[in-house]
Amino acid sequence: SNVFSGLRGSRALREMRRVLKPGGILACRDAAELHWYPRRLGLDEIYDKPMIKALGLKEYPGGEMPELARMAGFDPAKMRIGAGTTVHAGEKARTFHANGFLGRLEEGDQNRQTWLRAGIPVEEIEQVKKALVEWRDCEDAWYVAVQCELLAWK
């Protein structure tokens, strides 16, 4: 995800444009928004903000992808912007999704270490884990990620 953030994203997209043959197509997709329901569990706030911070971002990079592509030299007239979604709903999907995130927040996991290096306290990590378990076990819970999908022709 952080490939498309800020200056790094602009440099990465410039390099992708450079190596494309004339008429070549760049196709990319990255998260713009993530939402956890029901909202009362607070996962938008307590999970997403630390994740963005741990990645060294200010926001999920998909929202700025069209601007970064333009700044990298792609012609807006030769770009197509779309959106995709990822949804996790139902007991099986919730369990798989939550357990994956929980595993990445366990002691010794690289993702947890990234959160700690970003200054996210252990207490906050434990709060996120508790909320993920509550979300996993809530039969009405669901999750959606909205991604920017960009096609750009050289």
SS elements, strand count: 3
Helix/strand class = alpha+beta
Nearest-integer average pLDDT: 92
Instruction: Report the radius of gyration as a whole number of Å.
Output: 18 Å
H and E string: HEHHEHHHE
Q: In percent, how much strand structure appears in the residues?
A: 15-25%
Euclidean distance between termini CA atoms: 23 Å
Globally, the shape reads elongated
Major sheet: 3 strands, antiparallel
For the largest sheet, list the strands in their spatial order.
1-3-2
Which stretches are low in confidence, meaning pLDDT under 50 for 5 or more residues running?
Answer: none
Q: Work out the helix count.
A: 6
**Percentage of residues in helical conformation:** 40-55%
In a nutshell, what does this entry contain?
The chain has 6 helices and 3 strands; from the N terminus they run αβααβαααβ. By secondary structure, it is α+β, with helices and mostly antiparallel strands.
Question: What would your notes on this structure say?
Answer:
- This protein has 154 residues and is of the alpha+beta class.
- The protein is built from six helices and three strands; from the N terminus they run αβααβαααβ.
- The longest helix has 16 residues, at 122-137.
- A three-stranded antiparallel beta sheet has the order 1-3-2.
Question: What are the main properties of this structure?
Answer:
154 residues, alpha+beta, three-stranded antiparallel sheet
SSE blueprint:
Elements: H1 6-19, E1 25-37, H2 43-54, H3 65-71, E2 79-89, H4 91-104, H5 110-117, H6 122-137, E3 142-153
Antiparallel strand pairs: 1-3, 2-3
